[in-house]
Amino acid sequence: MNEIVGFLMEHGALVVFATVLAEQIGLPVPAVPFLVAAGALAAAGHLNLAVAAGAAVLASLAGDQVWFELGRRRGRQVLGWLCRIAIEPDSCIRRTEDFFSRHGARSLIVAKFIPGLSTIAPPLAGIVGLRLSQFLLFNGVGTILWVGSGLGLGYLFADQLERVLALSASVGPTIGMLAVGAAAGYVAWRVLSRYRGDDPVPHVTPRVVREKLRAGERPVIVDLRPLGARREKAGIPGALPMSADEIVAGQRDLPRDRDVILYCDCPGDAGSIAIARVLRSKGHARVWPLAGGIEAWRAMDVEERETERASASHPMVA
């Protein structure tokens, strides 16, 4: 925190603008400590509170507007980009879209206070077709509340922060190293868990599922995509729309004598794999993530239609 305060005293509102903008575009830069420190400096007369607030609000709105426009123009591809760099991609899209589906535009007011939702909410608003005026209104209110709370916290508790800074001057390096080590260890564990090669969950291909259906088998096919994704694009005919929480809570009702096929539209089938691993740990041995998810199923459909058209155009001559 000492370094943050010193940096702010030297560069002022420019630092506030840069850190807030960096966080809003998805970089791992925590802006809240800078807002709190800026509020404390404003209370001590070292920084203009209005200028700091204006810089933070402007930076946040600028970053959010970029993501909103990308969501409108590029669709769900943008969420794929964001979740590929997330530590827990299996929950990245699903939780955010479920929250947005329940609360609509109002979710933008609290989005910045919820880890994981802040960066994803603006492009999601563009994807679902939220009007620009609504986005500017609700996101603007949320941004002002977020910036105000950070600056206000530092401003109101400036005296306590000074005592904390004085204490941290003596024990800060040790505490800092311990905190950094713990954070690095947690991140490393999550990343290794994401990419580990042990205990792989076997997949089933779309073609195998299609053959099972044509053979008269009755696999239970579960659509794990959020409501917004299901509204945007149709899924596999006959699939049951369920959230991850619903299928885990109702796992006792899943048949154990039939295949259960899970599919999503997450990068690397992460959501389906995570749920399949949970269900298999509870004794459901016939649970399979669909390899490639809904996109692989659609690609198979396109390929089969093209093959049928080619066969019709060039019939076999006996």
UniProtKB/TrEMBL annotation:
Stored Gene3D superfamilies: Rhodanese-like domain (3.40.250.10)
Main location: membrane
Stated name of the protein: Rhodanese domain-containing protein
Domain Rhodanese: 215-302
Membrane topology, from the record: Multi-pass membrane protein
Superkingdom field: Bacteria
Membrane-spanning residues: 32-63, 136-158, 164-189
Record flagged with keyword Membrane: yes
Keywords: Cell membrane, Membrane, Transmembrane, Transmembrane helix
One GO cellular component term: plasma membrane
Cellular localisation: Cell membrane
